[in-house]
Prior knowledge:
Helices cover 34% and strands 15% of the residues. By secondary structure, it is of the alpha/beta class. The protein has two domains: 13-108 and 300-338, Rossmann fold; 112-292, NAD(P)-binding Rossmann-like Domain (Rossmann fold, 3-Layer(aba) Sandwich), CATH 3.40.50. The strands form two sheets. It has a seven-stranded parallel β-sheet, sandwiched between helices. Helix 8 (191-195) links the parallel strand 7 and strand 8.
Amino acid sequence: MGRSRIERSRSVVKVLFVAGRWAQDIEKSERLKELRKHARVDVALSGEEKQLIEKVDDVDVIITGGPITAAVINAAPKLKMIQTTSVGFEYIDEGAAAARGVIICNVAGVNANSVVELDFGMILDIARRIGAHNRLMREGGWARVEVERQVEIRNSTIGIVGLGAIGSRMAQFATQGFNMKVLAHDPYITEARAQQFNARLVDLETLFRESDIVSIHVPLNDETRHMIGERLLRFMKPTAIFVSSARGPIVDEKALIKVLQEKRISGACLDVYEVEPLPKESPLRSLDNVSLVPHIGSTPGIMVEMRETAVWNVLRVARGESPLNVQTSKVYYTSHKWSN
């Protein structure tokens, strides 16, 4: 790979790792040990804003899985790069980063298989009413619950909103595992790209009308916040299943609850929510046509791999190589911090 445009001088890169949930086992990271051979690394055990502001004065790169506010970014004059340990990066003040010429990199694709496995597990739960029957059996019953609402997903149509790393893996599972027809909506990819995953690009209304399963895989930003509302949900078939494992605020949760309460669709599979943890009083907890899990799209092993991938990308930069998975490419190509 070519040398990075971060700097071609011999100055040592300083990295701040905001450990957060990794605080207990961060020192087990082999790649972090390797990074320390090429950079000065400080570990913040807390992501509290005040503590971070005190640590970032001479930091070049931040690795984080939690919020980085404008105040933190503005307190770091040397900062060039924020590397997330996640795919989403809505918890970083992107505007403040852009204004300071700071790029944002993520770990896109690392958890794709893990998320898709969970999604199909929940889909099968709703399609065959597995959870409902499990509860009934444990209570001593035997009756078959809502037999008329049970369906096979084989040969059905899945609509995928967002055909990125996870959405495209979803399409592969659907076609190869269940012989599904795939519809997709993604304004940022070409028809040729969609065809690589046996998907046909359609508008959102068509996708919601024609799909037996609708699965959401877009990032959370100003464009996608509440993009899935009551209007689209009411286009769905009464036998259809709705799946959300991207970010909770992409879906208008009140609208989804209303549609589920009215049993306008067969059910929903939810791993993410507008407020997390999901409030105890949420109506979702009492609905029998919802499969609920607490944001567990990535297995523990995959979470470690995401951390290691994040550290590896920073290691590339510390060695003078180009960063990968740059999510703010315009900043990368225009920032003076990356043009020397």
